[in-house]
Amino acid sequence: MNEFRGNFTDIVAVTELRGSYPNVPYAPDVDYQALVAGDDNPMFLTIPIGKAGVTSGNKRFYDEAFVQELERQTLRNKPIGLMGHLSEAERATAFPPEAVHWVGAARVGDTLWGKAYVVPGPVRERIRRYKAQGKAIATSIDAYAAGEWDATLGAFRMAADSLRLNQIDIAPADRAGIPDLAAVPLLTTEMDEGPEPEPETEQEDTVVDKLQVINEMTADDARLLPDAVRQAIVESVPVPPEVAQLQAIRETLALDGDADVLSAIAEMRRTQEEQAKAAITRRITELAADIQVEPVRELVVDLVAARNPQTVEEAEAAYKAVSESAHVTELLQAHVVATMGPRQGAGNLPSQNGQRKYFVIPEEQEA
């Protein structure tokens, strides 16, 4: 398995169309005033620094995860850039003046855009003339990373977790690993004039001022935001599953937005419990209707209810156990004896020679 590991430089991305440049914000911790202090005509370069899903001319494939890590390290490290790269011999000792300072990054589709402050001097003039000529330039990553050969891609798939970004340099467009993406740089400056007006530093300052205000806001300041901004913030927050579930409960119970859901559920539960108790009582009464002796019937109903059945099935089982118990059976028999008298037998009838003796009752004579 082929593997790439170590320092590398690769010209990976620039942009394709003039006029399609996004407004890349500054990283939150960039001090704009300190950055441009002493510069009467500050100039910023907006240009792509990476692209997901592409293979460079050096056979390195950059996937989505790699470009995300490149964006994170650009915003965190805010690397510098040179015009071209240091050679291997120069890398150990050389420390040339920076050409650009990268101060922001933002994704637009698959492309990672960067914003760089261009240091006053020959580099600024050189890039300005490229802009005036409509001449394209490119960006080039100087970094440490590892990658494994991917036969399906025919390239080294670069590992995002191995990336250690050193700097992002400016390079000639004819050396770009993706020549079709070379383009004219976008420069923003206070003094930029011409037939195609570019964003002015005043607009850049406005972005910085807004960002500073936002970073200094507290939770108590939320009430000061316009309603449209607050609504946009609320809409951008994913709805927690619990909130969606609560809304579904409201719709199921036909409750309006002001109704107390807990009270409504508690009331519904009470109603269900009362209906269940009424059904159990009704069933016990139906079963006990077969007992003709009222006192015994009432006793059986009370004994079944005392077992506290929770369902109709439990009530039926309790009734069967109570009604067939020895105590209830004896009670019913005693009631019959008390009402009808003891059972009559033939033991007291006179007998003759061990045989029952019968008496003939003469019929009443007619007058």
Q: Can you characterise this structure?
A:
There is one protein chain. The longest helix has 28 residues, at 261-288. The strands form three sheets. Strands 1, 3, 4, 8, 9 and 10 form a six-stranded mixed beta sheet that branches. A five-stranded antiparallel beta sheet has the order 5-6-7-2-11. It folds into two domains: 3-201, no CATH class; 261-340, no CATH class. It starts with a strand and ends in an 11-residue tail after the last strand. Helices cover 38% and strands 22% of the residues. It is built from eleven helices and 13 strands. It is α+β, with helices and mostly antiparallel strands and 367 residues long. α8 (261-288) packs parallel to α10 (312-323) and α9 (294-306) crosses α10.
Which characteristics define this entry?
367 residues; alpha+beta; 11 helices; 22% strand
Low-confidence stretches are 12-18, 189-208
Tally of DSSP helical segments = 11
Number of domains: 2
Arithmetic mean pLDDT: 78
Question: Would you spell out the secondary-structure blueprint of this structure?
Answer:
Elements: E1 3-13, H1 32-35, E2 43-51, E3 54-55, E4 60-62, H2 64-77, E5 80-81, H3 88-91, E6 100-108, E7 111-118, H4 122-133, E8 137-150, E9 155-158, E10 164-172, E11 186-189, H5 201-216, H6 227-236, H7 241-253, H8 261-288, H9 294-306, H10 312-323, H11 326-340, E12 351-352, E13 355-356
Parallel strand pairs: 4-9
Antiparallel strand pairs: 1-8, 2-7, 2-11, 3-4, 5-6, 6-7, 8-9, 8-10, 12-13
Helix pairs in contact: 8-9, 8-10, 9-10
